[in-house]
């Protein structure tokens, strides 16, 4: 009677033949011992001494089938060639599903009024049974946010100061986790929210380019290839080896903007970072941003410059008091927002 072949293996497969031979006559029982890192290690040979053996387990046919499927060149990526991996990475449909989906999102911040919160005071309050003096209030920054942004959309977000616009971008970027609701973001995200965050004043311009590039997700080789172009665009070639504590605020802003816009993101989030620096640099920065918009699959911009939003975006979102008031074509949303403004306040429809 012929023995059945395991799933996924041909009868002439050498792995199958080895499995059949091992099942027929197994003079040596494989054992599983505790490895140096606390994991089980399969040892094909004589069992180790009892002093180092923690558990023995016979390898059965199902175990071998799982191992054969794991190391089978037809079913495992472990044997994929660099060319295959590169083709998967550069495939045109690799990021075709870029998406932002927020369902019933709520975000709360907790504010503690007593700044002297300590374990000693808390323990004495419990022992003496006196009322706690530590009061906290909750602030709802975002409420019932339902939003879906798909590939190819350019979204402009408008609203008064403190409405929750920047908070929404930070939540999409993953800086703030939602208190309630479901957040789904598919694709690489580059937030231009606080450019220059992480710059070290004692490091040189080149060193801060390497540091900030790593924080934005670039590999060391990618950063090295782009150092010259970054310095040239930011016009900081003469100051490359100087600590940035000697840079002016405008020079730091130009450097941070140039580093951040070197990436090719799937989802680009921008918060009031449309034109840093002086007038000449601002013109070149707008052109660079337009090129970045083309390379990005989804763009979301928070700005009070309505003309820029009208030129750049196709969809508008109006946020006030943490809620989405309007969502539609950018021209309609901007007109409704401006017509309902009364000073610095917004009259909700």
UniProtKB/TrEMBL annotation:
InterPro entries listed in its UniProt record: AAA+_ATPase (IPR003593), ABC_transporter-like_ATP-bd (IPR003439), ABC_transpr_TagH-like (IPR015860), Bact_Polysacc_Export_ATP-bd (IPR050683), P-loop_NTPase (IPR027417)
Region (Disordered): 27-56, 75-95
GO molecular function, one term: ATP hydrolysis activity
Source taxon at top rank: Bacteria
Record-linked CDD domains: ABC_KpsT_Wzt
Domain ABC transporter: from-to ranges: 122-346
CC per GO annotation: membrane
Coiled coil location: none
Keywords, comma-separated and alphabetical: ATP-binding, Nucleotide-binding, Transport
Family named by the database record: Belongs to the ABC transporter superfamily.
Protein name: ABC transporter related protein
């Amino acid at each position: 009677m012929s023995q059945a072949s395991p799933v996924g293996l041909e009868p002439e497969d050498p792995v199958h033949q080895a499995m059949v031979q091992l099942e027929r006559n197994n003079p040596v029982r494989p054992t599983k011992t505790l490895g140096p890192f606390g994991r089980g290690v399969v040892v094909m040979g004589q069992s180790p001494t009892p002093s180092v053996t923690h558990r023995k387990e016979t390898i059965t046919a199902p175990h071998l089938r799982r191992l054969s499927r794991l190391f089978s060149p037809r079913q495992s990526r472990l044997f994929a060639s660099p060319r295959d991996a590169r083709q998967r990475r550069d495939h045109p449909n690799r990021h075709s599903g870029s998406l932002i989906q927020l369902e019933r999102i709520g975000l709360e911040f907790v504010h503690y009024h007593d700044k002297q919160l300590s374990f000693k005071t808390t323990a004495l309050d419990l022992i003496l049974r006196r009322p706690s003096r530590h009061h906290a209030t909750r602030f709802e920054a975002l409420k019932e946010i339902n939003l879906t942004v798909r590939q190819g959309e350019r979204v402009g977000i408008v609203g008064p100061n403190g409405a929750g616009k920047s908070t929404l971008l930070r939540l999409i970027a993953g800086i703030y986790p939602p208190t309630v609701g479901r957040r789904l973001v598919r694709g690489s995200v580059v937030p231009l929210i606080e450019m220059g965050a992480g710059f070290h004043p004692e490091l040189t311009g080149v060193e801060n380019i390497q540091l900030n590039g790593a924080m934005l997700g670039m590999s060391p080789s990618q950063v090295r290839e782009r150092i010259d172009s970054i310095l040239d665009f930011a016009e900081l070639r003469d100051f490359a080896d100087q600590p940035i504590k000697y840079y002016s605020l405008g020079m730091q802003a130009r450097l941070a903007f140039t580093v951040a816009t070197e990436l090719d993101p799937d989802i680009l989030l921008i918060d009031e970072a449309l034109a840093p620096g002086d007038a000449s640099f601002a013109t070149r920065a707008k052109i660079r941003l337009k090129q970045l918009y083309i390379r990005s699959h989804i763009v979301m911009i928070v700005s009070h410059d309505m003309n820029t939003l009208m030129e750049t975006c196709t969809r508008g979102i109006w946020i006030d008091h943490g809620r989405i008031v309007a969502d539609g074509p950018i021209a309609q949303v901007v007109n409704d927002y401006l017509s309902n403004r009364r000073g610095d306040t917004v009259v909700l429809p």
